[in-house]
Specification:
Distance between the termini of chain A: 24 Å
Oligomer: homodimer
CATH topology of chain A: UDP-N-acetylmuramoyl-L-alanine:D-glutamate ligase
Structural class of chain A: alpha/beta
Helix content of chain A: 25-40%
Number of domains of chain A: 1
Number of helices of chain A: 12
Order of helices and strands of chain A: EEHEHEHEHEEEHEHEHEHHEEEHHH
Strand content of chain A: 15-25%
Strand order of the largest sheet of chain A: 6-5-1-9-10-11-12-13-14
Largest sheet of chain A: 9 strands, mixed
């Protein structure tokens, strides 16, 4: 059956609050640099009080990827829960404005829209503290069967392994996609997510996942590998395709027992790495949905990641389809 | 009496919603490119619906200037009205986080925090539509006598000439500053503001203003001048100091019947001109408060303006004091 969407994704619907910070600030607040820490609402207020002047922008890992997919001109659908509040309106506006389909009913009478407090150090590295709020109220009923069955690729973010209801929604979506003969892609999201759920993640990957996306720290944590060289063996037979991002070193794609090395694309400058992995996933998945060779999928990923690191915020500011056309990639 | 603040400012407290747009979008929406148009709440909702994926950031002309003043390491105080809502919290957080003093009580039970919908075209020009909301509920009682009397310079934005209560607050602040022997600076804000209130603005300038800030379009509109060359005559005898900004051409400073030409500082790239005039005002006023020669005041203004146009958003992202020190300006 012809697909209605190239990619459908499920994730935590989050608004980002992004501010510059220095390493001393991270130390004083006890924050693990580069990681994502879950925080409760009182802690979110205290931390926000102490943060510098910020910029607010729609975020959420899979939502950022879906924004990138839409920006590349592909057909994108998103499922995630916001509250019926001003930040929820901002989230819904932005993902629709970039061209994605988004219909999940907002939560009423519960916690507020999720926020991710992101402190960006001068090296461009982002350290995230997330108050999950309404996003964890996503439940299986929010996963509409037709939407999943009609997408070439179902994309799931590893962050959804934390909240139990969301994990149930995740399992339901995977079953629908599997039943419809679609591909299932998973992002590991964060090394601490891998540590918290390693056995469950491996079981889910073995049972359901065709395409695995991770950065090298997450991939090594998942497979207990000491070096990148041993990951190829670990991946073989587990998933058909794995893409492992390596920041400025580019990425590697593992498939059919082979390793393809992809260069990073040059960014105008390095301002904020927030969303780089999400945008790599966008380019890579659009390439796969369009049946492009793996090296071109990786190049599309690199192009999308390079666009997003030269400004504050996790989503593309320039239409990725135009950039990809300029570079002959689509 | 020694001053507690270098600059105290009164303005419309606004949160900016910034999105890219093309010229066709402006034409379809009937928007005058580069201008600020006042809109009501229903129109704000419709326009927001049609805008692209946006970024939210604290704004407001005089508030941006105060953020720049604080970023330059000078002592800054701000007076402006937000509502007790999430956007109001963002505004209050950001202006305090950058180091300014801000104590105006938020409005309860009235309209929401003001929003400025800003469409940025590929040439970096910004076209603004403002829903004034709670900001126009600023009233004379919000102007605390001690704060104004203790600031070297009182800075007023021309936008406050639109709402009657705010204009009354404006007049009260000017009277306090005058009584305390302080300097009064005025920004013309917008050519349409000048057209709407030309006679009142001229009367206010003659009676109260020591320092006038304007771009060349606003200055020519105010004085009915056909060219920049005739503005010097028009200004002489009216205000002691006038600074007229000219975008990429830099600025001119008019004082004591002379004209000083100031070059624009080079920006890394031109992304979004929102806040360029506000930041020029910040540098210029800090220079004046610190009794620097006028050419150095202008150079500080150019430096601050160059920082803000290379990214989306109207406030500095890098500490201006560091940039000014690198360039030997402070």
């Amino acid at each position: 059956m012809a697909a209605l969407y190239d990619v459908a994704a499920i994730g935590n619907a989050i608004v980002d609050v992004i501010a510059p910070a220095d390493d001393d600030f991270l130390a004083r607040e006890g924050l693990a640099k580069g990681a994502m820490t879950l925080i409760d609402e009182p802690r979110a207020h205290v931390l926000y009080e102490r943060m510098a002047q910020a910029v607010e922008t729609s975020g959420g890992s899979a939502a950022n990827t879906i924004a990138g997919v839409a920006s590349l001109g592909a057909r994108a659908h998103y499922i995630g829960k916001v509250a019926e509040d001003p930040l929820g309106e901002i989230f819904a506006h932005d993902i629709r404005a970039i061209g994605a389909n988004y219909e999940t009913a907002p939560l009423t009478g519960g916690p507020a829209t999720a926020r991710c407090l992101i402190n960006v150090t001068p090296d461009g590295e982002r350290t995230m503290c997330t108050y999950l709020g309404a996003s964890v109220r996503l439940e299986p009923a929010d996963v509409i069967e037709d939407d999943i069955a009609n997408a070439e690729i179902l994309y799931l973010e590893g962050y959804l392994f934390d909240p139990p209801k969301a994990r149930a929604a995740f399992a339901r979506a995977a079953a629908i996609a599997r039943g419809a003969g679609r591909k299932i892609a998973l992002s590991l999201s964060d090394a601490f997510v891998v540590e918290r759920h390693r056995a469950d993640l491996l079981a889910f990957i073995d049972a359901e996942v065709d395409i695995l996306l991770a950065n090298e720290v997450e991939a090594m944590a998942l497979f207990g590998a000491r070096s990148l060289g041993t990951i190829l063996d670990a991946v073989s037979g587990r998933v058909a395709i794995a893409a492992v991002t390596r920041s400025a070193e580019g990425s590697i794609i593992l498939a059919d027992g082979e390793m393809i090395v992809i260069d990073a694309a040059r960014a105008l400058r390095l301002v904020d790495t927030t969303g780089a992995g999400d945008q790599y996933a966008a380019g890579f998945l659009v390439g796969l949905a369009h049946r492009r060779p793996l090296a071109e999928c990786g190049a599309l990923g690199s192009l999308a990641a390079a666009e997003v690191i030269d400004h504050f915020g996790p989503r593309p500011q320039r239409p990725l389809a135009e950039l990809a056309m300029e570079q002959g990639l689509i």
